[in-house]
């Protein structure tokens, strides 16, 4: 089965961090789109709501996508960049903010349908907490469940993929790791609510991402989407795939194939200082290299997994990577 590669559009232009407003001149949305479609093997684009798309430009973006012959892979609602969401979105203690969030997510769902996009990628970044003895964990998780379920039932043809991350911008996120995110998805009792794995988020969470893939499979094929990047394990550095990890990627790609994942492989990194097109292209080439190792040696990897011999696995990886 041919794998499908995509990129989050903002990766080509969002170059600010806590210390510098921009390390490069940020291109416009349309300029980023013209660059993204030139990256080898890219067939799909993810758009961030408000940054890239909304009701005011959805028709134009739909035409641009058609002209370029690319697919809108997902819409990522911007429920993280508005100061109104500083203490939560669907989990805010303020009912007016919860309603504002619900209305906005509904609007983005309609935009997704207009773009012929099958996934609303929900990174609920502000839904968490910072201080102890300040949060009713049970009540806020209930609000999160209710809001997600309401949306999923209203738009049954859309998939709602909950993207987890242990921290940032909050110190603790309600969708923090695969297990609690599976619980959040299943509590909605909606078959169109599942999970997005961001490899870097999993690394920061201390997860073995390959095992997280298996957990999602065992929970009922709940892995809806994949984001690829790399980091050093302490922070969501959003680096080039393969710049830190190698065996980890072979392992997780093996399990993606083993579990029958048929979704997109989307690059999600922020090359603040590097040439964005080149850095994203490099990530895709690394993913393709890891895929080739798995495809060419699938039966051998299958045997190694069953053999449970660390030395034999090490010998295989050394030869696969370096000859």
TrEMBL record:
Principal place of residence: cytoplasm
GO molecular function, one term: isomerase activity
Keyword Calcium: no
Localization in the cell: Cytoplasm
Residue ranges annotated for the Xylose isomerase-like TIM barrel domain, each copy included: 44-289
Cited InterPro entries: L-rhamnose_isomerase, Xyl_isomerase-like_sf, Xyl_isomerase-like_TIM-brl, Xylose_isomerase
Top-level lineage group: Bacteria
Pfam families per record: AP_endonuc_2
Presence of the UniProt keyword Isomerase in the record: yes
Entry keywords, A to Z: Carbohydrate metabolism, Cytoplasm, Isomerase, Manganese, Metal-binding
Protein name: Sugar phosphate isomerase/epimerase
Source organism (scientific name): Alistipes hominis
């Amino acid at each position: 089965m041919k794998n499908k590669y995509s990129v989050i559009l903002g990766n080509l232009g969002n170059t600010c961090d806590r210390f510098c407003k921009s390390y490069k001149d940020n291109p416009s949305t349309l300029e980023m789109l013209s660059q993204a479609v030139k990256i080898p093997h890219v067939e799909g684009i993810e758009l961030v709501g408000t940054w890239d798309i909304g009701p005011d430009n959805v028709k134009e973006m739909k035409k641009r996508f058609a002209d370029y012959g690319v697919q809108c892979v997902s819409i990522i609602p911007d429920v993280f960049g508005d100061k109104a969401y500083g203490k939560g979105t669907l989990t805010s203690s303020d009912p007016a903010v919860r309603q504002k969030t619900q209305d906005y997510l509904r609007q983005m769902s309609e935009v997704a349908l207009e773009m012929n996009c099958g996934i609303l990628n929900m990174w609920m970044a502000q839904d968490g907490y910072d201080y102890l003895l300040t949060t009713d964990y049970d009540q806020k998780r209930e609000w999160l469940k209710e809001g997600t379920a309401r949306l999923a039932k209203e738009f049954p043809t859309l998939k709602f993929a909950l993207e987890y991350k242990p921290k940032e911008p909050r110190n603790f996120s309600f969708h923090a790791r695969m297990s609690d995110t599976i619980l959040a998805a299943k509590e909605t009792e909606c078959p169109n609510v599942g999970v997005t794995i961001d490899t870097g988020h999993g690394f920061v969470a201390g997860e073995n991402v390959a095992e997280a893939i298996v957990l999602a499979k065992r929970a009922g094929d709940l892995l809806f989407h994949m984001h690829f990047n790399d980091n050093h394990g302490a922070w969501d550095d959003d680096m080039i795939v393969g710049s830190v990890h190698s065996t980890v990627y072979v392992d997780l790609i093996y399990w993606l194939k083993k579990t029958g994942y048929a979704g997109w492989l989307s690059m999600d990194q922020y090359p603040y200082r590097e040439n964005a097109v080149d850095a994203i292209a490099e990530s895709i080439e690394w993913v393709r290299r890891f895929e080739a190792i798995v495809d060419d040696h699938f039966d051998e990897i299958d045997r190694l997994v069953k053999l449970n011999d660390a030395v034999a696995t090490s010998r295989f990886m050394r030869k696969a990577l370096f000859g």
